[in-house]
Amino acid sequence: MKRFGDRVREARLAAGLTQEALGFELGVSKSSVSAWENGRESPSFRLLPDLGRLLGRSLDELLSGTLSAREKTTSSEKNAMQGDAAARDEKERTLLLRYRRLPTAKRGALLELIKPE
């Protein structure tokens, strides 16, 4: 089974974030993120909800490496859509990353705004 740091690194890379970008979003240094990934330190409990949100992972998945039945379904749906969601250039990649960082309510509002007539 993978360690916490390995799961964080894997999720960070999947989200397209650098250690520096993740640290900036969480208000910590790049070296703190590196220390988490290398198992030298652990993030503060207060950072865990934001860490999960930014990485698009549940706390269960990050902390224990397990998925609930609901998360397994969502994960398989994500994998099926991966090809459609891939960015074609740097501008699309930036837009996609910013969308993924939005809270759920704001995502819904944005989708309503750009919904085809």
Using DSSP, what is the number of strands? 0
Mean pLDDT: 82
Radius of gyration: 15 Å
Low-confidence stretches: 69-73, 79-83
SS strand fraction: under 5%
Report on the biggest sheet.
none
Helix-and-strand structural type: mainly alpha
Question: Separation of termini?
Answer: 48 Å
Count of discrete alpha- or pi-helical segments spanning 4 or more residues = 8
Write up this protein.
The protein has eight helices and no strands. The chain is 68% helix and 0% strand. The longest helix is centred in the middle third of the chain and has 17 residues. It has 117 residues and is mainly α. It is elongated, with a radius of gyration of 15 Å. The N and C termini lie far apart (48 Å). Helix 2 crosses helix 3.
